[in-house]
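Lab notebook: predicted structure, single chain.

Context: the supervisor wants predicted structures on file for every construct in the current expression panel, including those that have not yet been purified. This is the next one on the list. No modifications to the sequence; it matches the entry in the shared construct table.
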Amino acid sequence: MKLSIIIVNYNVKYFLEQALLSVRKATERLETEVFVVDNNSVDDSVAMVRTQFPKVHLIANTDNPGFSIANNQAIHQAKGEYILLLNPDTVVEEDTFDKTVAFMDAHPDAGGLGVKMIDGTGNFLPESKRGFPSPSVAFYKMFGLSRLFPKSPVFGRYHLGFMDKDKNHEVDVLAGAYMMLRKSVLDEIGLLDETFFMYGEDIDLSYRIVKAGYKNYYYGNTTIIHYKGESTKKGSLNYVRVFYNAMIIFAKKHFTGDKARAFVLLLQFAIYFRALLTLVSSFIQKAYLPLLDAGLLFGGMYFLKDFWANYTYNNPDYYAPVYMTFNVPLYIGIWLTSVYFSGGYDNIRSARRLVRGLLVGTVFLAAVYGFLPMEYRTSRALIVLGTFWGMFSLWGLRMLLHFIHHRNFKISEVQKSNMVIVGSQEESKRVMGLLHQAQVQKNYIGIISPKTDYDQSDFLGSIRQLDEIVHIYNIHEIIFCAKDVTAQHIMQWMTKLGTDLLYKIVPEKSLSIIGSNSKNTAGDLYTIDIRFNITSSMSRRNKRVLDLMFCFAFLLFLPVLIWFIRKKAGFIRNIFSVLFRRKTWVAYASPGATSDNLPTLRTGVLSPLDGLRIGEINAATTRRLNVLYAKDYTVDRDLEIVWRGLKELGK
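Prediction complete. Output recorded below exactly as produced.
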């Protein structure tokens, strides 16, 4: 056996499917075996592999032991002369394995090999080649010097930016996304260090290969797509913690004395520093618009105060200072909170959500007004005027931000991007059917033939004219049919056309269309799978708010409700369980909730079955009710179920 390919998967079924299809094409001329180690995915990955790839050796773990352990499980069974660790969110060229195996055969000093990687936009991934993270190299990276001077032999050693990405080089560190290893070297130095759960194991293994007297090579004569960010979120605090803790493990293992202590201190500082930057960045991204809204409302209310005082009372000092220090902040807080829960910050293009939020906030203010002490009851007219000011000013702000970004004022219109499909007529027709079923709203321009000879009445042109077609028709998105266009050609065009376009690939016979617009974000996916309302951020948030409102209402009216609830002690227990996020008032009925891969919910006190005055319900009906609950979820649905099952709230 020449090559054993090992893919560790965790909840990226569609990307795994695409990776395995590309691997199948790339192994036609080579004696290979393929392993998929699934780390307890809940997205039907295991069933997909068993059904579509029966020749793949599948190891289905019942827990998530981590990346290193999972790879080692397959390595112990592998028979290949070479071991390839391959990420599930990758696409390889048809001759990638032939070329890299031939290079390893020709270089007996090679312990490992990595390749040139591009992301889903065709952009070169600098982590394709890396240097060892010595204290100085880590320092330059953490404080941005490597980014400022990427081609410097001194500051740019982390990503070796001074080396030509299109040529072969000897490097320090191999990227775990495509890591080809000589099995005899692994037998000599040992397998992946299982101390590393995720991140750092590739650096550790690369370091041990070099220490044993072998070389690591970067091979620039083939390219793979590495979508990045599918199994993890790079911008999260968890990523910062896990990544830098892995570096600390590496430092303690391989460095000694003052060098080790200094490196560990530097890395510990980096954890807190990067965590702070992540928190600040996340706060700015989420809070900048509410802060701008608050500033606009405050300025408007200040102007309206003076205007109304002069116009109505002919006295600019009619309102006491407490109006601006207490009343206005209270009004703004209620208005913006209402806009938030109305989804006004989830979809800033929706005037309806913004206006609804302001109006609901005004109604709430009218109710609160009567409970305020007399000294805080200012003119109700100012509340009404402030509502109208908020409608016009906040919507105007959104129009301005939209214009700055898009150079037009068509904020409420869904901007349909121009899209072309590269493939045969038959496959393109299938793709159009998938897009229609997935309800993807695109401005379909036409089909581009993968061949040079084509019927001009059926195609816009041939793939050789793709750059001209993109320019003439102002194309924003290209979908490549993998059945008709080789992965090599797809990657060449992605690199040539640049990162301003969106690229997607539809694997042969697949029901998903896959791409990614950023190396740091999860991929874009068009699929005909059911879309669940319960997964939207607004639905999740409103469900939690409703849970809390129920808790406070139940506590307030506990002396009355306790007479109606069957299990009184359980009812009180449930109130506090929901309050502290251990339960939710309504969730799925069991059985069927987990087997159908529905969006995760906390354990529910009630379910869609509660209060139904019918006989015994079979498992199939239960599953359908669960799917409908997740698919068509609204707050009203929870209200209905709680009212219907009021007596059972103690179970």
